[in-house]
Write a structure and sequence with these properties.
Elements lengths: L1 H48 L20 H6 L3 E4 L2 E16 L4 E4 L5 E6 L6 E2 L4 E6 L1 H32 L5 H27 L16 E5 L4 E6 L6 E2 L6 E4 L3 E9 L11 E5 L8 E8 L9 E9 L10 E18 L4 E3 L2 E8 L2 E6 L1 E6 L2 E6 L6 E5 L1 H16 L1
Antiparallel strand pairs: 1-21, 2-11, 2-15, 3-10, 4-6, 4-9, 5-8, 6-7, 8-10, 11-14, 12-13, 12-15, 13-14, 15-20, 16-17, 17-18, 19-20
Helix pairs in contact: 3-4
Length: about 400
Amino acid sequence: MKSKRLDLVIMSGKGKLWRAMILVLILPALTLSACGKADQAEEGTSAVANPEGVNQKPAQPQEKLLNLDADEARKAGIKVEKLQWRKKNDQITVTATIEPNQNRLVRIAPRASGRITEVKADFGDSARQGQTLALLNSIELGGALSVYFQAQSDFELAEANLERAKRLLKDQIIPQMDYLRARAIFANSETTLRAAVDKLRMLDVDPASAAADDSSLAVFPVVAPFAGTVIAKTAVTGGLARADQALFTVADLSTLWIEADLVEKDLSEAKIGALSTVSVAAYPNERFEGRLTYISSTMNPQSRTVKARVEAPNPDGKLKPGMFAIVAIDTGAGGKALMVPEVAVTLMQDTPTVFVAEKDGFAPRPVEVGARFAGKAVIKSGLAAGERVVMSGAYSLKARILKSQIGETD
């Protein structure tokens, strides 16, 4: 009897143990089943919201629009235009230096040495053709005049003696030898006079105007051969002038040379006569047009570049010799492109950005910029034709955005 009770107790203990083990095994299964149903319910809800099962990206926050009234836009210098397709030419852009037109430049030196008695022009002055720039008193000219006057006198005497010898010979008063001697003296005096005349002409003196009693002829002018600007001057009153030293340099600055260096890869595209656009730092919003007139036949072996020259008119005198310039040479190739002024493109977070005028304000638009030339930038992507784009005043809008961002940070 006691043994049976013990068995029942053991059996009873075993039953409790088994029940505990069953609960341990069943509870995780029930939990997984419940989770599975919850997942199915969630999937069902998702399927209702997105029936096609498209993987949707979370909505990106839109950039705030800048709202400006008409007065604020005017003060900010904002100008808006519709973006249009425009014809463009591919260009070669190089740095250059502006130089005087060497075909219209003259270094003026006296033809004879002498003392400068008066200077009538200064550096930077405009000179007319034939204008006197300085006066010189020349010992050399005085000597040439003396030789001329003596030669003229000897010639006149020899001519008279020859005429007299002809008459006397005709009347058989003198022998033939005297006549031949008179004729030889005349020929020699004629040669001497011709040499004296040529010497005066070399000194820019007209022999016909020379007079033996005119001592002022030793003072002669230095004149400008054509109209231009005095770009160099060494003449000083009282100074000694020599024939091998220029007293003035006069240049016609109505046309200028823009000297550039072309790299080897651009030679096949640069053509004589190509339209070229010149820009300088002094006038950032202006462009000066010219033509490519010269490409050197030789290459610099050190820099591997070839000299090229653009000739540009300079009627207003804005371009100055010595200025640095940027030259864009048309290659003739190209097509149509969406272009905006370079000032319309600004960097925001290191990304080229253009502002677009929308209904409720101005919005920054990231763009991809292509070639830049003649103050224009080609827009490769990010904008479409017909959109209203801020062509000037972009930096004012950028400043407003940065200011608002600083305020939000604070």
